[in-house]
């Protein structure tokens, strides 16, 4: 389970990190696009380490979600965002960095190189807030992440009906059987709740649950997510 951190300033982030860590997630995601100081690279690098300390050493995923893929508007251009990701990788305060695979290939390559150099896992992601592409297109996105050198591929879509949810789960299962890297997938919003609970059964390695606040539509409170995941795991173990 991963819980997002979405506070706007440093004191709020440190308090949020400590409070959310106490809820028992496996890792935290700092959604830096919510942070008002995102343009101050040195502050961001130092704050990443401080967040990890405040969370008792929990692994930290660093994410800037672009506005076009559902994130907050920021003043930085993409070259500056890529430079920020590289600096954070070099700073030693994060364990994983998320970068969207549809950005300029040169930026993707630069972030990938920084992540590899500094031992940071690279999550290459794609988010569609408008709908759910067909299964083959979803598979193509996950394969694209692997081909670009991701350590983890991530895919999130917005379903319009349960057929879309089924397509997401089908693509997840097929990719999990063929890709050489772990993957994370989810359908967002109320219709996608089943993918947050049962995604692991289809090959998704991680589910996102809200700590103090959600960062995407459909994230359920982490306590409820844990309960649902535990019940499903027990039921599947009994069947085995």
UniProtKB/TrEMBL annotation:
Q: In which pathway does it act?
A: Metabolic intermediate biosynthesis; chorismate biosynthesis; chorismate from D-erythrose 4-phosphate and phosphoenolpyruvate: step 3/7
The catalytic site is made up of: 127 (proton donor/acceptor), 154 (schiff-base intermediate with substrate)
Residues of the signal peptide? none
**One Gene Ontology MF term:** 3-dehydroquinate dehydratase activity
Give TM regions: none
One BP term from GO: chorismate biosynthetic process
Q: Which InterPro entries match?
A: Aldolase_TIM, DHquinase_I, Type-I_3-dehydroquinase
Q: Does the keyword NADP apply?
A: no
The EC number(s) given in the record are 4.2.1.10
This protein's assembly is summarised as:
Homodimer.
- PANTHER family with a match to the protein in the record: 3-DEHYDROQUINATE DEHYDRATASE
* Main function: Involved in the third step of the chorismate pathway, which leads to the biosynthesis of aromatic amino acids. Catalyzes the cis-dehydration of 3-dehydroquinate (DHQ) and introduces the first double bond of the aromatic ring to yield 3-dehydroshikimate.
Report what the protein is called: 3-dehydroquinate dehydratase
- Which species does this protein come from? Ramlibacter tataouinensis (strain ATCC BAA-407 / DSM 14655 / LMG 21543 / TTB310)
Tell me the classification of the organism that encodes this protein: Bacteria, Pseudomonadati, Pseudomonadota, Betaproteobacteria, Burkholderiales
């Amino acid at each position: 389970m991963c819980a997002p951190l979405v506070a706007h300033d440093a004191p709020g982030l440190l308090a949020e990190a400590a409070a959310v860590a106490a809820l028992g997630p496996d890792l935290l995601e700092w959604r830096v696009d919510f942070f008002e100081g995102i343009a101050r690279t040195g502050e961001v690098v130092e704050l990443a380490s401080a967040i990890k300390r405040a969370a008792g050493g929990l692994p930290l995923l660093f994410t800037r979600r672009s506005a076009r893929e559902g994130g907050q508007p920021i003043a930085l251009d993409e070259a500056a965002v890529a430079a920020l990701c590289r600096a954070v990788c070099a700073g030693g305060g994060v364990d994983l960095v998320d970068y969207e695979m549809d950005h300029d290939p040169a930026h993707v390559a630069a972030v990938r190189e920084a992540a590899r150099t500094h031992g940071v896992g690279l999550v290459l992601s794609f988010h569609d807030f408008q709908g759910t592409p067909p299964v083959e297109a979803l598979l193509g996105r996950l394969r694209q992440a692997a081909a670009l050198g991701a350590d983890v591929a991530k895919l999130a879509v917005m379903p319009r009906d349960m057929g879309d949810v089924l397509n997401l789960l089908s693509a997840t299962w097929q990719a999990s059987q063929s890709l050489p890297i772990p993957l994370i997938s989810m359908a967002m919003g109320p219709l996608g709740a089943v993918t947050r609970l049962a995604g692991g059964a289809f090959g998704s390695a991680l589910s996102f649950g809200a700590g103090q606040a959600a960062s995407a539509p459909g994230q359920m409170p982490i306590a409820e997510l844990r309960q649902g995941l535990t019940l499903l795991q027990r039921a599947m173990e009994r069947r085995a």
